[in-house]
Amino acid sequence: MHRAALLVLCGLVGWPARVRAQVEVQAFLGSSVSLPMPLSIAQRGEPDLHFTAHWATRPWLDTWYYAGRVGLWSGGRGWLFDFTHHKIYLTNGPAEVQKFRITNGMNMFTISRGFRRGLLSYAVGAGPVITFPINEVRGRKLESGRGFLGGYLLSGGHVMASVTRMLPVAEHFFLSLDGRMSASYVRVPVAGGHAAVPNVALHVHVGGGFSLGRRDTEGHR
Question: What is the dotted CATH code of the domain comprising 2-13+21-213?
Fold first, then answer.
């Protein structure tokens, strides 16, 4: 999954090189805070479970939390492709839930419309969520190997809004401070059933990047 995302990002970098526009490539590390949200789990032959789930991110455990962006800008407007490797660990599961996490992860692919003035940009977009669920409910572990690439599943969708501040450090190179709010809904398998998992999260990123092509002065005053 991570290799596929990298190939898409690299392809988008090369595709628009000949047009009169500016391409920006950014990479981020960071973390997120997920709001408590309802979680429903259904298993055949068992009563459904409904409770308010509390989530942790643990950005450095199992797999890292990270994000990437490719933007194509013309003046003060642009199109952005974002990949956010979001993660969630259930921290308050009932006795029936021994383990529940989506840590390889809650992979959000976002196409956004961007707007900027000066070094501050805003974007709003949407896209699919591809998950890698790991769980054990009532002593029954979810079997690995479902979906593609050893366990990835197209599980739902999301919307996302972001604000990004660039901090120039050299010609064509910059640091970035980035904040995002995402709202997603996924349905993932459990052994003998499924779970409905809504998620609303605030994401905070620190990263850097570089720009290619000519920067129009429009939108940068």
Answer: 2.40.160.20
Could you tell me the two tokens for 63?
Answer: 């797999």
Is the pLDDT at 217 greater than 90? The verdict is: no
Q: How far apart are CA 20 and CA 165, in angstroms?
A: 23
Whether residue 168 contacts residue 118, with contact meaning beta carbons closer than 8 Å, is answered with no
Do residues 46 and 85 make contact, with C-beta atoms less than 8 angstroms apart? Answer: no
Cis peptide bond prior to 105, omega within 30° of 0? yes
Q: Output the pLDDT for position 15.
A: 42
Please answer whether residues 53 and 40 qualify as being in contact, where contact means their C-beta atoms are separated by less than 8 angstroms: no
Spatial separation of the C-alpha atoms in residues 205 and 65, rounded to whole Å: 10
Q: Distance between CA 112 and CA 82 in Å, rounded? A: 8
Give the C-alpha separation, 3 to 61, whole Å. Answer: 20
Structure tokens at 218: 């429009």
Which residues in 67-82 are b (16+ Cβ under 10 Å) and which e? bbbbbbbbebebbbbb
Q: How many C-beta atoms lie closer than 10 Å to residue 179's C-beta?
A: 14
Answer yes or no: is pLDDT of 11 > 70: no
